[in-house]
């Protein structure tokens, strides 16, 4: 039995497989956020409030992205599903998970100590923007993907890095602490556009995937084939997902920010 | 230690794109405040990734290293294999004489079976994907032959449907299993071996163990390369034009200079690269240059040369004797092992004597080099202007300094 999804040399089967590592990870993440919220409530001297329902949705999206069948297909069979995992983890699950962090818990990052200082530094908008794009670039380099996806540990590290990068990227948008007074709604929209919609990293990678004459990733090119989809087609879908899919998600987020902003201004 | 050094040492990061990002580009494209954290992220990744992937230098040369040495990415066969003679049956029931039907063409021969879950469909799909953008003329000169190891289940109709889904021009062959195994054995391939699936009660459900290489027969009928499982489309895209012998016919001297870099002609493990004929000022003689890299461990010998524009060709050695420069004709030229032998102006060169026609920059000369071990190597040699000669030959290894005959 595998504990985490990774590339396999056996042909794809629709028979369900268990990945206990995914369940344990999700359970630990849920407990960690709950404990963080409790610590925030205690520090504020208040009763812990129920977790935001979006948090449960975030965990559910993460579960869908990591577990069978999406996790298994993306782990070693289809580059397009691998890209879908990336989008789900970084652009969908991450903001939903952050919504589950209470304001009291968020205030903990303003406290003294090295850890809060690191979090404050990393979640500054410019830093988060650059970090997200650097992580996106590095984790999509063929050498990195082909090197890491063949082991469960490597695949786990990629998923973990994606979730962390997604949380960092969305922190300045979703979280109220630390306060960045000058990071107003128009800047937030620009941040999202620059981070994903018009990101040279995302566009560059998508271009390589869509227009490459030969498939970019050996892992998916040489994976046991799935009938009806060639590796070229698979890579092109992956590129389209990265370029168009990412832009659509960000467009939704920008729309929400815009309408809230215009409602406030009105 | 330079910051990019760790990355460069790891084979995972052999790409040329990466080191600049690690070493120099990051500080120049991001605000200074983020440069150091970014470098740390990159360096951490460089340290962590090898640990996770077991990244270490393999003692056996990989496809990239082989390509650097020979320009080809297939596995070189030592010695090359001759095209076998056999007749099997096509999916439409007609006989297929392998030697006759593939004469003068590149033949990619593979043994497999249509129920194969991985190797067979991947090989076929990758070859089909690389052939697809090629011109009709190019594709017409490549024959892909798939011989079933499982004639019991691979009926002609199934073979035609399965293989046709990749490329209708691929040829599926079937026949008596003993005959197929005999052909495989003659090519040093193992016979197909049935491996029952599940509890083995259902005799129609089984896998077939078979050779995973595609054998590539060149147009001269010899297979010098095999392509094992793991061969990627980019490997096929690199090797197929070379197998077709098409990547050495540039249209002009300028194109020649540009195209010669990847256009190394190959014969076994002996590479003849950067050939050029200097556009002659006279109608009677011309000089030809090239570099031979002998990647084997034994000395080879260049026995003779012929071209389509000269009555004869001689190997000349330029010598300094008593203060004057003289030409000395060599009957043969030893090609030292494990290194380059360069024929360059002012040194060794080939004199093409009694030209049959005037050649000008942009022309192509056909040449045949006869080596004692490697055999015949055919070249298409661009004619370049003297002004372009240095650029064309530029970078040619110079392992043999001008010979000085003692007084």
Output the structural class of chain A. mainly alpha
Order of helices and strands of chain A, N to C?
Answer: HHHHHHHHHHHHH
> How is the biggest beta sheet of chain A arranged?
none
Number of strands of chain A: 0
Derived from helix and strand composition plus strand pairing, the structural class of chain B reads alpha+beta
C-alpha Rg of chain B (nearest Å): 26 Å
Mean model confidence by pLDDT of chain B: 76
Mean pLDDT of chain A: 95
Largest interface: A-B, 31 and 34 residues
* Percentage of residues assigned to helices of chain A: over 70%
Keywords:
heterodimer; A: 266 residues; mainly alpha; 13 helices; 71% helix; 0% strand; globular; B: 407 residues; alpha+beta; eleven-stranded mixed beta sheet; eight-stranded mixed beta sheet; 12 helices; elongated; disordered N terminus; disordered C terminus
Structure description:
The complex is a heterodimer of chains A (266) and B (407). With 266 residues, chain A is mainly alpha-helical. Chain A is built from 13 helices and no strands. In chain A, helix 1 runs antiparallel to helix 2 (53-66), helix 4 packs parallel to helix 13 (231-265) and helix 10 (185-197) packs antiparallel against helix 13. Mean pLDDT of chain B is 76; it is low at 1-60, 248-267 and 395-407. The longest helix of chain B has 22 residues, at 32-53. Chain B has 407 residues and is of the alpha+beta class. The A-B interface holds A 9-11, 126-127, 130-131, 134-135, 138, 141, 143-144, 147-148, 150-151, 153-154, 157, 213-215, 218, 221-222, 224-225, 230-232 and B 12-15, 18, 30-31, 33-34, 37-38, 41-42, 45, 48-49, 52-53, 55, 117-118, 121-122, 125-126, 129-130, 133, 229-230, 232-234, 237.
Short description:
The complex is a heterodimer of chains A (about 270) and B (about 400). Helices cover about 70% and strands about 0% of the residues of chain A. Chain A is built from 13 helices and no strands.
């Amino acid at each position: 039995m595998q504990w985490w999804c990774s590339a396999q040399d056996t042909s794809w089967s629709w028979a369900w497989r268990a990945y206990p590592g995914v369940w344990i990870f999700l359970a630990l993440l849920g407990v960690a956020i709950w404990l963080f919220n409790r610590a925030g409530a205690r520090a504020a001297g208040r009763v812990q409030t129920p977790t935001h329902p979006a948090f449960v949705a975030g965990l559910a999206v993460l579960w869908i992205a990591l577990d069978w069948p999406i996790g298994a297909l993306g782990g070693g069979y289809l580059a397009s599903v691998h890209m879908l995992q990336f989008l789900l983890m970084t652009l969908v699950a991450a903001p939903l998970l952050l919504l589950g962090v209470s304001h009291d818990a968020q205030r903990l990052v303003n406290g003294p100590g090295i850890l809060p200082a690191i979090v404050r530094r990393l979640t500054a908008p410019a830093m988060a923007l650059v970090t997200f794009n650097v992580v996106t670039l590095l984790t999509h380099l063929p050498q990195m993907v082909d090197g890491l996806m063949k082991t469960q540990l490597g695949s786990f590290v990629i998923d973990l890095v994606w979730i962390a990068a997604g949380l960092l990227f969305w922190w300045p948008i979703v979280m109220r602490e630390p306060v960045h007074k000058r990071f107003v709604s128009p800047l937030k929209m620009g941040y999202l556009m620059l981070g994903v919609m018009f990101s040279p990293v995302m566009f560059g990678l998508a271009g390589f995937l869509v227009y490459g004459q030969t498939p970019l990733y050996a892992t998916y090119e040489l994976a046991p084939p799935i009938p009806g989809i060639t590796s070229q087609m698979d890579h092109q879908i992956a590129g389209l997902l990265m370029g168009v899919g990412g832009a659509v998600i960000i467009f939704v987020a920008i729309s929400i920010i815009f309408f809230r902003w215009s409602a406030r201004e009105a | 230690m330079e910051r990019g050094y760790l990355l460069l040492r790891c084979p995972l990061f052999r790409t040329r794109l990466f080191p600049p990002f690690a070493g120099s580009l990051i500080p120049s494209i991001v605000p200074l405040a983020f440069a150091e954290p970014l470098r740390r992220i990159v360096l951490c990744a460089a340290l962590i990734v090898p640990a996770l992937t077991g990244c270490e230098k393999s003692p056996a040369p990989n496809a990239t290293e082989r390509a650097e040495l020979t320009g080809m990415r297939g596995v070189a066969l030592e010695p090359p294999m001759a095209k076998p003679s056999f007749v099997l049956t096509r999916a439409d029931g007609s006989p297929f004489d392998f030697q006759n039907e593939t004469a003068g063409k590149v033949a990619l021969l593979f043994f497999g079976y249509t129920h194969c879950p991985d190797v067979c469909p991947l090989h076929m799909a990758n070859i089909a994907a690389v052939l697809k953008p090629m011109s009709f003329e190019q594709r017409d000169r490549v024959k892909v032959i798939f011989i079933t190891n499982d004639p019991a289940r691979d009926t002609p109709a199934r073979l035609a449907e399965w293989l046709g889904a990749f490329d209708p021009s691929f040829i599926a062959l079937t026949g008596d299993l003993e005959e197929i195994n005999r052909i495989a054995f003659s090519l040093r391939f193992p016979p197909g071996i049935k491996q029952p699936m599940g509890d083995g009660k259902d005799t129609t459900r089984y896998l077939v163990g078979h050779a995973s290489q595609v054998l590539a027969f060149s147009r001269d009928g010899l297979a010098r390369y095999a392509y094992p499982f793991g061969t990627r489309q980019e490997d096929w895209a690199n090797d197929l034009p070379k197998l077709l012998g098409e990547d050495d016919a540039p249209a002009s001297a300028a194109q020649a200079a540009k195209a010669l870099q990847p256009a190394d002609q190959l014969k076994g493990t002996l590479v003849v690269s950067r050939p050029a004929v200097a556009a002659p000022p006279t109608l009677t003689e011309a000089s030809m240059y090239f570099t031979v890299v002998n990647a084997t461990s034994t000395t080879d010998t260049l026995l003779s040369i012929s071209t389509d524009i000269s009555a004869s060709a001689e190997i000349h050695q330029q010598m300094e004797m008593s203060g004057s420069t003289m030409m000395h004709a060599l009957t043969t030229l030893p090609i030292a092992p494990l290194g380059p032998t360069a024929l360059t102006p002012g040194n060794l060169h080939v004199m093409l004597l009694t030209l049959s026609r005037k050649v000008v920059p942009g022309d192509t000369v056909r040449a045949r080099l006869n080596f004692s071990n490697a055999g015949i190597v055919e070249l298409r040699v661009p004619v370049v202007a003297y002004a372009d000669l240095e650029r064309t030959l530029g970078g040619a290894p110079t392992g043999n300094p001008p010979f000085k005959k003692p007084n």
